[in-house]
Amino acid sequence: MTAHPSAPFLPSMTPAGLVDPFGRAVTYIRVSVTDRCDFRCVYCMSEDMHFLPKQDLLSLEELDRLCSAFVARGTRKIRITGGEPLVRRGIMTLFKSLSRHLDTGALDEITVTTNGSQLAKHARELYACGVRRINVSLDTLDPVKFKAVTRWGDLARVMEGIDAAQAAGLAVKINAVALKGVNEDEIEHLITWAHGRGMDITFIEVMPLGDVEEQRADQYLPLSLVQTRLMERFDLSALPDQTGGPARYMRVRETGGRLGFITPLTHNFCEGCNRVRVTCTGTLYMCLGQDDAADLRGPLRASESDELLQAAITDAIARKPKGHDFIIDRTTRQPAVGRHMSVTGG
Ligand code: SAM
Ligand code: SF4
User: Fold this and answer.
1) Domains in the chain, please, with CATH?
2) What confidence category does residue 9 fall into, taking pLDDT thresholds of 50, 70 and 90?
3) Closest CA to 153 of 45, 32, 279
4) Shortest-distance Cα residue to atom 12 of ligand 1
5) Residue whose CA is closest, atom 19 of ligand 1?
6) Whose CA is nearest to atom 25 of ligand 1?
7) Measured in angstroms, how far is the CA atom of residue 148 from the centroid of ligand 1?
8) What is the DSSP letter of 64?
9) Cα(154) to centroid of ligand 2, in Å?
10) Residues 33-44 pLDDT 10s
11) Which of 3, 31, 133, 262 has the most other CB atoms within 10 Å of its CB?
12) Ligand 1 within 6 A of CB of 343
């Protein structure tokens, strides 16, 4: 039996799968386990960020309970993100406890998006917890530019992290934000480097999330332009989309590798959206680009059983919007949403 998404969850019911009002099944959650980070990337954070007081955060046990409540409703994939997820103290405990859902077959995949700074320390344990694929964010291979983009990062350390991840058996995908005048001239090099190491690479358009010091229009490089330029150099052929996600993939004939484009601005990817995002305080965002949210911390803490929590999840999914309305131009000064990407999780 599939309950209507807005039907109340009653204690006697087996929780039904999550389907939104547009018929999209929600099977993927991204969980931001901290809003803190050891970098201050120019497109993600302002230099002077105010972070949440630690007591507002869900404990690791509460995060496990929340994720498990989604697994009970048909979530097949969990991505742990942040802020920088691997700086959260004790985070490996969460990976370890969630891995039981991989063992039972309830979950297909646990994965992580990281800046790579702590990977050398954690790669083997991630693998031991059943993680098989990770995303590492890296926008440039030039140490000076890397410092300028991340403000606080150290490229050599990230490279050690990538080495450790590959040595541990983790498949690594590189995510790079395309930044006008910053890594614009390095895109080919990033592709040949990543593919040379057996890694997929995906480029992302900068999104107008949260106030940062720079003007978004000064950072924004449309990927349609990047693709046109790349086609002069490489033979690119479209691949069928197998991820259900926002990336469109192409095969680069010269390298044999896969190249992805995430284009929230030039190509709207909402029709196939199968995901929601939970913050480290237990706020559920049904769309990355909209403000509507549901508090799950209240119902989670109000009772030891999951009935209130499940009812709140049901209500929230019934409000999942059709899509986002990102715009970047010189007349639109306000970010699309006030929160930074580090709050909602990438
Ligand atoms: N700290 C981890 C990392 O950097 O991979 C995980 C969190 S980070 C917020 C997730 C992803 O969001 C990163 O790939 C980052 O480059 C991307 N990101 C952050 N702010 C963005 C923005 N305004 N537009 C597009 N991508 C952004
Ligand atoms: Fe930190 Fe990731 Fe945001 Fe960079 S993109 S500041 S590494 S959360």
Assistant:
1) 28-344 (3.20.20.70)
2) very low
3) 45
4) 346
5) 44
6) 206
7) 16
8) H
9) 13
10) 999 999 999 999
11) 31
12) no
Q: What is the pTM of this model?
A: 0.90
The ligand whose atoms approach the alpha carbon of 220 most closely is 1
| CA distances to 65, 114, 316 from 295, in Å | 15, 25, 9
Site to probe by mutation for ligand 1, drawn from 262, 340, 341 as the one with most ligand atoms within 8 Å of Cβ, is: 341
Nearest ligand for residue 40 CA: 2
**Best substitution site from 40, 43, 44 to test ligand 2's pocket, by max atoms within 8 Å of Cβ?**
44
CA distance 292 to 298: 17
CA dist 227 and 221 (Å) reads 11
* Token reading at 65: 């309970």
Residues 117-122, mean pLDDT to the nearest whole number: 98
Beta strands in the chain (DSSP E): 28-32, 77-81, 109-114, 133-137, 171-178, 200-205, 236-238, 247-252, 258-262, 275-278, 283-285, 293-295
Residue with tokens 């940062």: 212
**Residue 296 CB partners (closer than 8 Å, separation 6+):** 66, 278, 282, 283, 284, 309, 312, 313, 316
